Amino acid sequence: GIVSAADVESLPAPLKKIVMAFQMVPDPMARYKQLLFYAAKLKTLPEEYQTPDNKVPGCVSQVWVVPTLEDGKVYFRAESDSQLTKGLAALLVEGLSGCTPQEVLSVKPDFIEMLGLSQSLTPSRSN
Known about the structure:
By secondary structure, the chain is of the alpha+beta class. Helix content is 43%, strand content 13%.
């Protein structure tokens, strides 16, 4: 689908910054390298959090996401056994940590299309 600039504008500021950075990269392979850079920067999630309760269902790779609520803001930590999904999880951690629950809930999964990566992601990766 075509994503309008208005959709990007509606994103929480940190996530909007990330999406715009991806949109400035014209080459799909360079965008993947950017995604893998985010994966490399993601802090390792301690194993005690890598539990079935924190596992993202329906994803081919193993992905764990741990949200915590502090002073009315949500902070995320994540881990994955695949570099691509780890990169996507890192975008969420970086782009949504510090947002309010309402801001987090307002983000639709199609923000991934805004990154210009969707054509090479399998449907199960955008969970």
